[in-house]
Amino acid sequence: MNEAAPDFFLHEGRLSPGDASVALIVVDSANYLLQLRDQKPGIFYPGHWGLFGGALDPGETPDAALRRELFEELGFAPRDISYFTEFAFDFAPHGGRRVIRRYYEVHVRSDEVATMTLGEGADLRVFAADEILGRERVTPYDAMAIWMHATCGADLGVA
Fold first, then answer.
1. Does CATH number 3.90.79.10 belong to domain 23-151?
2. By the 8 A CB rule, do 96 and 58 touch?
3. CA–CA dist 75, 73 (Å, integer)
4. Which residues pair with 108 in a beta bridge?
5. Torsional sign, CA 134, 136, 138, 142
6. Which is nearest to 31 in space by CA: 51, 45, 1?
7. In whole angstroms, how far apart are CA 6 and each of 10, 41, 159?
8. How far apart are CA 146 and CA 152, in angstroms?
9. I need a labelling partner for 95 at 20 to 30 A (CA). Which of 31, 107, 128, 144 fits?
10. In the chain, which ranges are E strands?
11. In the chain, what are the domain boundaries?
């Protein structure tokens, strides 16, 4: 990141968390497609690498939101999506509500990635799990989902 660029991560007003649908886009069964989020005010984790997806519109199902977001952000209409996990963030004790971030698995080939057009964000890139998990500026909840996905075949130590 350019040191002269403003960092809006902790210095830009109050954000409103909401329910979201997110894609773990698995490339060639081994890597993950991520987006470099714009460095701008009004979004969570600007200037961080994260997964593609976004907020649900009123009355929209999580599946429909994911398909809409992938088309808006990548010009991509996935054939199949499958539920992977979700994280709940409880803002109720702080005057908010419980917010769900739902993750879906989407498998693509590298030749499909080459046909995608970035419609939102500063960049896109394919990473191996160990490569992205070693970066400092990755959205933490997306990093956790990638870690879960990359290790789901192993014993996670969850009883």
1. yes
2. no
3. 6
4. 27
5. positive
6. 51
7. 11, 10, 44
8. 10
9. 144
10. 20-27, 31-36, 49-50, 52-55, 82-90, 98-108, 123-128
11. 23-151
Quick: pLDDT tens for 41-93.
Answer: 888 899 999 999 999 999 999 999 999 999 999 999 999 999 999 999 999 99
Radius of gyration of the chain (CA): 16
Kindly report, residue by residue over 1-55, the tens digit of the pLDDT: 445 456 666 665 677 889 999 999 999 999 999 999 998 888 889 999 999 999 9
| Among 156, 12, 19, CA closest to 89 | 19
Confidence of residue 159 (pLDDT cuts 50, 70, 90): very low
What is the DSSP code string of 85-111? EEEEEE-GGGTS-EEEEEEEEEEE-HH
3-state secondary structure (DSSP) of residue 51: coil
Contact predicate 41/13, CB 8 Å? yes
Give residue for tokens 């984790």.
45
CA atoms of 31 and 39, how far apart (whole Å): 25
Rounded-to-integer distance, Cα 142 and Cα 133, Å: 10
